[in-house]
Specification:
Layout (H helix, E strand, L loop, with lengths): L1 H7 L1 E3 L4 H16 L5 H27 L5 H10 L6 E3 H19 L2 H27 L13 H14 L12 H5 L7
Antiparallel strand pairs: 1-2
Length: about 190
């Protein structure tokens, strides 16, 4: 039941990028109106992207693998990894709103918050694109790529997460947080 409701109210890739993309455009407009020095804006955007990698790890590990109804929706992705990835609006809209508003509230500055939000939202968009590529980038969605580059390592670790141990390898863009927090797959 939760799976059906989640899939009816979901956007499939690449349409799923619209929510975060709209948030990025809004934050960009706000940032453009603030007069924040470009070097500071860029530094905050990079910081937001790095923060996204931690947020992505935490969301994947504790929300998508731990909290209903998100867990039920995510289990469908694990059972059918070759199906197009769909992001429930009940997940993507609140996430985008939090990434838009929380930085400003925490930093108590609209300009700084907008720049950080752009980095967070860009990270989410890049993560979705990479996640799609991990599943569709090789023939038949083969997640066991034997190459040595960054994408090959990400594909291998994501494949491990899907096929061998869903309690490990939560990072899509990076394995850093898995190594740091003890959930990296064995080498």
């Amino acid at each position: 039941m939760a799976e059906a409701a989640g899939n009816r109210l979901a956007l499939g890739y690449p349409g799923s990028l619209v929510v975060s993309g709209a948030g990025m455009l809004l934050a960009g407009y706000v940032l453009a109106e603030t007069g924040l020095p470009p070097w500071l804006a860029l530094a905050l955007m990079v910081g937001g992207f790095v923060l996204w990698t931690l947020l992505e790890y935490l969301l994947h590990r504790f929300v998508l693998h731990g909290l209903w109804p998100f867990k039920a929706w995510h289990e469908l992705h694990h059972r059918l990894p070759d199906e197009p990835i769909r992001i429930p609006l009940a997940f993507s809209v609140p996430l985008a709103l939090v990434m838009l508003m929380a930085p400003t509230l925490l930093l108590r500055n609209v300009a700084l918050g907008a720049a950080l939000a752009i980095g967070l939202l860009a990270g989410e968009i890049i993560q979705e694109v990479v996640h799609e590529r991990l599943h569709r980038g090789s023939a038949g969605g083969d997640l066991s790529d034997k190459g040595r580059g960054w994408l090959a390592v990400r594909r291998r670790e994501h494949g491990f997460h899907h096929t061998q141990d869903a309690r490990r390898a939560f990072g899509t863009l990076s394995g850093f947080w898995d190594r740091f927090l003890g959930t990296a797959p064995p080498r």
